[in-house]
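Hi P.,

Sorry for the delay on this. The queue was packed all week, but I finally got your sequence through. Input first:
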Amino acid sequence: MALDQLKEFLMKMQSDPELKNQVLSSSTADDVAKIALKLGYEFSGDELLRMSGKKVGHVTVKKNDIPGEYN
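Then the structure:
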């Protein structure tokens, strides 16, 4: 299930500073999903965005609004 994969990825991110930096420097949720896929975690950018405002372990998922981005 994608939600389980997403939660596992967020938990891994807590203990991996390099991964955390990659995620924080990503421009879009789809970019984060691509990073996760390379590590064997499968979820979409949309699924990640739906987690906005929720906390998993010590990570709070937060959508960044980028000026000029279309909704």
